[in-house]
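Dear Dr. V.,

Thank you for agreeing to look over these. As mentioned in my earlier message, I'm a first-year student in the group and I'm still getting used to reading structure tokens, so any feedback on how I've presented them would be very welcome. I ran two proteins. I've put each sequence directly above its structure. The first is here:
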Amino acid sequence: MPVNKRLRLLSGGIPYNDPIPASPRTTSRKEHLKAKKKLKNKANLSAKLSSQKSETYGAMGFEAEDLRIATTGWSGVRLGRDRDVTLLFRKWESGEILDVIAHMQFVPFRNPHLTEGSFGAQPHTHIRDASARLFGVRTSMPKFMVQRVKPLGPKAVELVASTSMSEQSRKGNNRGRHYFSVFGADQNNKQAIVRTAYHRDNEAAFLRFWDANMQAISDHASSVVKLHHPDLAARIEHVNKRIEDRYGMKPEFGLFWNFCVNAPYPKAGVREVVCLPHLDSKNAAIMLCVVLVYYVGPSPPGNKEKVWLVFWEAGIVIQVPIGVMLTYPSALMVHFNVKIEDHHLVVTKNGERPTPLNSTPLHVTTEENPSSQRCSMVWFTQASIFQAAELAGGTVEATMQMEEEAQSRAPRKEPYFPVTYDAASALAANFFPVPS
């Protein structure tokens, strides 16, 4: 009986492992062009598969180029406490935010109890800006993920119990007072890329948590980016290859260098993860994070998720049930969670003004199971990794020193060693793809 060599496919048709290895530098021009053509064909396939069986929501009046990007171009900017931000926090804390988001565009997940391929199942969801840039993707519900997320709750409880987190760190978390962790490596305020202190201090607990099931979920997270953002994925792979060539290091989480588990923190009376308005400003700017929701305890009946995610600048409120993944540029957009109740809000087609005839209530369960605790996990990469790959000196400080020395030898207007990143050109480079 012949051996079946067919690659194992994900829900979108992209294999876990890239079947086309990078061309060695010693290949001939003919072989190089052949490999380049294969990569182009793969990108075209990704675009085709990404657009098939997907629905699109347009954030009218919102342009990705207007998002908060640091003057250096590498990262987002810190969310200050000016008048508008203070008002946003007050409304979030008081619950008045529901009156504000009632005027935003809601993106419910249709039939979250159905998996991909079933009649009536929700397809991939694309969120685009006014120029049709794809800045957010919510995947469909692949059948294999329904099974893979089931063990995550107990695993997270074990992780929380077997790791240590200072009260100062927890209370200083701008996302909320829940348990959080930052595993992986970065170069934040360091001279070299090293694992985070939290990872080093809790390595044994992390190794117990990171089993074959988590590895498969992580592979899926990277494949989601490759499928829907092929040009951005290629840039990330280029950055990762530069890091490997320079420092002999590889990311531990597929395309990503960091991974975070958000979970309840019983010691402090925090029973679920509902994030405050925030920006992940240290993350790379023209980049995506990937979010997966899981539960400690029973999941909501019918998988009808009550806690939704708000993209503030885009005016989007999106439902993310267990088992699907969501991508978006977390460094650039203010985002936060809200609890949606049936009696508060309705949805209409194409954002029409609601009337009794054209509106439908949001069918989200209002039954609260006290043992049911919503949580999340996130894959991301911080800006310092991109700097380590692309700056001549590896860090901004070292590169500025090189520039100063070069200018002292032969002054010129154009820098020898730039320390900024052209985020505007990156936005135009199809990293947030526009339909062809």
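The second protein is here, in the same arrangement:
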Amino acid sequence: MNSGSSVTSIRSDSPSSVHKFAQILKIFLVIYKLVQSNSYATKRDIYYNNTQLFGSQKTVDSIVDDISCMLKVPRRSLHVMATSKGLISGDLCYLEEDGTRIDCRSGSAGKGVPDVNSRLMVRKLWDTLHIPIFALVDADPHGIEIMCIYKYGSVAMSFEAHNLTVPSVMWLGLLPSDLQRLRVPEDALIPLTKRDESKLSSLLKRPYLTSQPDWQKEMELMQQTQVKAEIQSLAAIAPDFLTNIYLPNKLRYGGWDLSPMLPLNGKTSELLKLVAKLKKDRPCNCPA
């Protein structure tokens, strides 16, 4: 994904670029020392190395990415790391380079906009285990963008997309069409904000989505209905609906992208009857 890339020129003899040039040289010096000593630092560490020079964390982040792009090497080769935001949980154990054994059977799932480490991990799992990768995100523009970053990459890291993206990512849920199909209660739905509408329009204009007509239809449905929903909205049907019914049926019957929740062989009506029963039997403390 290379759309949106730009070139910036910085001259050491230009008064307007002197400060920026000093910032770049400082970070180059830090990177040189890290590589020479075979040690690592986070981008946050670099910022606190000279807060007055850099002014903000965003400045450091941008320069490190620029250096990585300029040298055509991944950021980890510069011995610079980001503070990890992603979490992992599941039947998986692996060894770190220093021999530390990591047990993922106690932990949590990924969260928020994926950082480089999270994307590297998902890519590594895909490359090594040859397993399908599904995305379960909120049915809102922000959730869709998170999924797109895993599948297609981000503009900021477009030069390293071949190492970070997983082209086979499938949209498991929560689909906008699921909200109608499962009759999620209206009080569990949230109206789109102006910012949501702007983000959604921007997503629909992205070139790579032309190859994903099912995704486009889901986003267009969101535009039409003008509502969004969090994954937790399924608890309005039944407290354990997500784990006991939604996910097992999605995974078993192939209900991702725009595919029906269940194949048209009587199973769909069977599920809807079960949903109706769950709503009827819902405890009084469960949202109506």
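From my reading of the second output: The domain at 16-81 is CATH 1.10.10.10 (Arc Repressor Mutant, subunit A). Residues 18-37 form the longest helix (20 residues). Does that match how you would interpret it?

Kind regards,
E.
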